[in-house]
Every structure is written in C-alpha cells, then in structure tokens.
Here is the input.
Amino acid sequence: MNEKELKSTLSAHSIPDGFIKVTDKPIQGLSSEQKAVLNRKGNVLFNEGKYDAACRIFVTTGYSDGLARIGDLYMKQNRSITALKYYLLANNKGKSEMVYEKIANIISILLK
Here is the structure.
C-alpha cells in the first residue's frame, strides 16, 4: 500500500475500526512515510481522547513517544502493570524502572 492509498484509507474512517492488532510487536513492513501518516493519525486520536484507537496505531508503528503517553495514562489510573507494558514497548527505561520501584515497594510493605 502506498502513502496515498494509506491516507485515503485512514481519512475514510473517523476511527480505524478495521484496524486489528493481534501482537504487541510493530509491523516490520511499514515504510517511514506510512509510519509518519499513522503516527499523525494516532496523535489526533489521542488528542481527541480516543485512546484505544490511538494505542492500536502506536503499537502497530512502534511509536515510542505515543506508547509512553499511553503508559502515562495508565499510571494516572493506578494501573501500574498495564503502564509497565507500554513503557517496555516504548523502550522507556526510566519510566519502566519507576514502575519496578513502585512494585518493589509494595512487595516490601507486604512482607513486613
């Protein structure tokens, strides 16, 4: 699929309902132009509060900034383990270590 076809497909849907992701690994066959188009669409969806749709795009493209922002949303909801998943997908070592520390503190308190 070329960039023009991809843009046409994305603009035909307000939310990419047909966008199915069955793995947490980025798709390898996307060109940098296709990733850029998808990431822009993901950013628009994220800013509109359509986090699930944005997340599917960010996972597909492996967009680390978007994945980290999804992780931040889960942290605000006190869903640390889910946030950790997205921090790991984003290769964000700093935020991942923050979650590890939080989990270690909880375990430490439980053991006392």
